[in-house]
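This part of the workshop introduces the protein records we will be handling. The question running through the whole workshop is how a given chain folds. To make this concrete, we reproduce a full record directly below:
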Amino acid sequence: MAPLVRRTWSTRGQTPIFYQRGGSHQKVSCIGALVVPPGRDRLHFYFRLHPNRNINADRALGFLCQLLRQLRGNLLVIWDGSGPHLARKVETFLYRHLRLYLEYFPPYAPELNPVEYAWSYLKKNPLAQHPPTALSALAVSARRSGQSLQRQEKLLRSFLQHSHLFFCASDRILLNQYSIELGI
């Protein structure tokens, strides 16, 4: 739970002091999706936090189920090839949900995933220099920062543009379905 410390300002002669809890291996794992609707008029950012847990296939599938409940039409999910994404449970889940399509990023290409830019932004801006003393404080701060990011459409759009992942208007698959980039 050590904070990411960045350069800061202070009064001359007064060194800023951050108090933190050392020796703790507690964490908050996140799973998120940047959703591009068919009209491409508005972007949405969905995320779920898992305090002190790793993201496994069951948690990834729970997140996909929630997205299926909230979004209508066909869904194209683009995600990386991490272990939970390649699990057998995911494969059987796809056979039961025919409106869900999966595509994978090339191996180790985080620069193509716009959700990675969202995580980087959250870590380096609102959560930087925030020394949590308890796991619950870290979870509350991460949730608040993620909810703030959900309301910043221009910033979400910049993540998509910076990723060099483009959507062609002539692509017939993307015209009739949502496109979702997932990041863990």
Remarks:
- The helical segments are 57-70, 88-96, 114-124, 135-150, 153-162, 172-175.
- The longest strand covers residues 28-36.
- Residues 28-183 form a domain with the Nucleotidyltransferase; domain 5 fold (CATH 3.30.420.10).
- Residues 135-150 form the longest helix (16 residues).
